[in-house]
Amino acid sequence: MQTTAPSTFQATYRPWLHRYTMLLVAATFVLVTLGGHVTSKDAGLAVPDGFTVYGHFLWSFPYEKWVGNIWYEHVHRLKGSVVGIMAIILAVWFWKSQKGRRWLQLWGVMILLLVIAQGIMGALRVDFARWFPPLATPFAVVHAVVGQVFLCVTVIAAAATSRWWINQNRDDFSLKSAAQSPTLSVTTPPSPPLYPPPTPYHPTINSHLPKSAHWLAWSLVVVLLVQLTLGALMRHNSAGLAIPDFPASYGQLVPPLNQPDIIAAIDARPMDEFIDYFTPFQVGIHFAHRAFAMVVVIAAVLVIARLSRMSRQSPALVRPMLWIIALLAAQVFLGALTVWFRRDPTIATSHQAMGAAILALATLLAARVHLLHWSGLDRGLANDASRPHRADTTTSLPSNLPQASPA
Amino acid sequence: MVEVVQSQGWPQAKGLRVMPRLAVVARSLRWTDRAAILPAILVAMLIHAPASVVRAEEASHDHAHHHAAAAPAAEAGTEVAEEAADKATGKTQDETAPAAAKPRPANVGGIEDPQKQGGIITGDVVFEGKLYPRRPILMGTDAFCQTAHPDTPLLDERWVFGKRFGDEKAALQNVFVFVSKGLENHEFELPTTPAVLDQVGCVYIPHVLGVVAGQPIKVLNSDATLHNVNMNSKHNGGFNEGMPVKGMELEKTFKTPEMAIVLKCDVHPWMASYVQVMSHPFFAVTQEDGSFSITGLPPGEYEVSVWHEFERFKPVAAMQRVTVETGKTSEPLHFIYRPPDAK
């Protein structure tokens, strides 16, 4: 029987910590969606002062002044402050409760620093419209992208506190250092024997998973990040309707990309109050977003097809994969609706929020694949009975006990 | 009094500067003390902030009373604008009637020329083609804006057809008519009186405004709601300033000639005004009847051009030549716009 050196550290599943982290993910998703709606409603500069609200302290801005587009911008800021407070609590909670998981402690600190940086960036995005307008739009794009990166970071935190993750019992990325450094090791009481033994979470994740699987999974996240950056560039340059037809682009496969041809193409279209003359940059960035959508779909299908062959029976990997495919199909349709309905704010925001959801799922998938890669499960150790797997305690049970029935 | 509020910055922002000093004190305290003090600071801020805005509103009230009546009437010119201004500011006809001379009509540009020493260019702009309906604006997000237009919904101002001349012909309003060539060797006195752009009933009045480079622009808020004025241009920089209090005013100067600088309100996204910064004062904006008149021109040959914000409306001839003689009105110019799908 193959044996592995058992780690003295065993992470403990803390249900309330996990639930709280999930709540932070949900709050961040709502925050990102509200931020998207601010852009859809063209409300980003409705409150000209970034660090205050028309001179008021954020939480004391009188409700009767939440008029017009101020409402959207102010609610986004309030929600941001709530997420900020939640991040502080999470950082402290991680620091106190995850002493054997150094990386997760630092992850909590990083979440806090990132949310602070993002808040400052959001305020500067507004203030640059007063101080130095050429920087206002670039900052808005960076603010949009970092917001989604923050969502990914919270998703990883939620994944790392989940029961599934803990049950891998390789702890995580601090395993090696924990094993080598006694000072970092924390010995927790062994779990009581479970009877009947629960079904292992990943019975067949084994040598089929190649060493590069985690890079494959992360590459999908990178592709999605590129696509959302293109989307943010498009939205913040008023290019959402720069190609007014879909699926064709001005009736062609590739739209005209120089000014005279764009003007001629727009003039050839019937009267439409939403369509004025667009610049080559606007048409170009819009087309790049559309073209890259095809890259995203192809990449997602390829990555998921490759990963799913290796993890057919692991719901922890299969479920996010199925969701990604389903939401991608819906996302393409929402993109089309955004054009057909002339950039209706609700539809445009749904498209942006759906993109965020897909990115979050891809991050979850990548994090889980990464854990399996890191903990060595992908190298044929998954079915090793000597592994001190918390959920798989069959080897420690007396042999004369009846085994659990499959039912 | 409003200037005092502006020059000192926001009262709350000033209040926040106290925070570092409080932090020094807080450092000497124990955790338990700090925990008790923090909510106290928050409560103090909650109480302080609304009170100071009320003070600012009270301070600006007298000022609003002082200027809001005359300014839009003088600049906007049309009766519609005056009525809207009166409605929004709560003025009666007697109060708004200017005591001095009658203001110049809004469609008359150029310089004051009482001695008739200069020439005059006149003409009109009409639209020929399908008179596309204007989109009604939904103002439900701001009750003040909605009540300012109780009877009929405000319509989008992207194109405004004025006097009708048939089913498919109408005067086209808000066309900026200007001398585009022929004044290169002339110098003109810079107007010292600021051009006024008012926010009345959640609409910019006027929708198209011409100024001479270096001439100040005074932006007013005659509404009892919050506006911001946001501008970003190629050659004249940009700004974004809040005007949350009725009666506030803002003065800006654009120093470089530039066409179609958009001033917009992000609180009410339908609000936009186009400022044309010219190197000379010879321009006009068409009004309800589509006519325009540019007075006080030195004699000479000029090219006159037109601009409309919806670029897909095409002028049949965007530029026309005209000869101006001293003290005479030149042959009227007729500009015709057509829709994009005109055959």
Explain the overall architecture.
The complex is a heterodimer of chains A (407) and B (343). With 407 residues, chain A is mainly α. Chain A contains 11 helices and no strands. Chain A has helices at 15-40, 70-97, 102-131, 136-160, 163-167, 175-180, 213-236, 259-267, 280-310, 315-340, 345-374. In chain A, helix 7 packs antiparallel against helix 11. The model of chain A is unreliable at 1-7, 174-187, 196-207 and 378-407 (pLDDT under 50). Chain B has 343 residues and is an alpha+beta fold. Classes of the chains: A mainly alpha (407), B alpha+beta (343). Chain A binds chain B through residues 41-49, 51-52, 54-57, 59-62, 65, 67-71, 126, 129-130, 133, 136, 266-267, 269-271, 273, 275-277, and chain B through 10-13, 15-16, 42, 45-46, 48-50, 52-53, 130, 132, 135, 141-145, 156, 158, 225-226, 228, 230, 232, 237-242, 244, 266-269, 310-312, 339-341.
The shape of chain A, in one word, is flat
Radius of gyration of chain B: 24 Å
- Low-confidence segments of chain A, given as residue ranges, are 1-7, 174-187, 196-207, 378-407
Number of strands of chain B: 20
Helix proportion range of chain B? 25-40%
List low-confidence stretches of chain B: 1-16, 49-100
- Count the helices of chain B. How many? 8
Overall pLDDT of chain A = 84
Largest sheet of chain B: 7 strands, mixed
Work out the largest interface and the residue count of each chain. Answer: A-B, 39 and 46 residues
**Fraction in beta strands of chain B:** 25-35%
Distance between the termini of chain A: 29 Å
Order of helices and strands of chain B: HHHHHHHEEHEEEEEEEEEEEEEEEEEE
Number of helices of chain A: 11
Mean pLDDT of chain B: 79
How many beta strands in the DSSP annotation of chain A? 0
Any chance you could write out the topology, listing elements then pairs?
The complex is a heterodimer of chains A (407) and B (343).
Chain A: H1 15-40, H2 70-97, H3 102-131, H4 136-160, H5 163-167, H6 175-180, H7 213-236, H8 259-267, H9 280-310, H10 315-340, H11 345-374
Helix pairs in contact in A: 1-2, 1-4, 1-11, 2-3, 3-4, 4-7, 4-11, 7-9, 7-11, 9-10, 10-11
Chain B: H1 2-7, H2 11-16, H3 19-27, H4 31-67, H5 70-76, H6 79-89, H7 93-96, E1 108-110, E2 119-128, H8 143-148, E3 161-166, E4 169-172, E5 176-181, E6 195-200, E7 203-205, E8 208-212, E9 216-221, E10 227-232, E11 238-243, E12 249-253, E13 258-264, E14 272-278, E15 283-285, E16 291-297, E17 300-307, E18 314-315, E19 319-324, E20 333-338
Parallel strand pairs in B: 1-16, 2-20, 6-9, 8-14
Antiparallel strand pairs in B: 2-4, 2-16, 3-4, 5-15, 5-17, 6-7, 9-12, 10-11, 10-13, 13-14, 17-19, 18-20
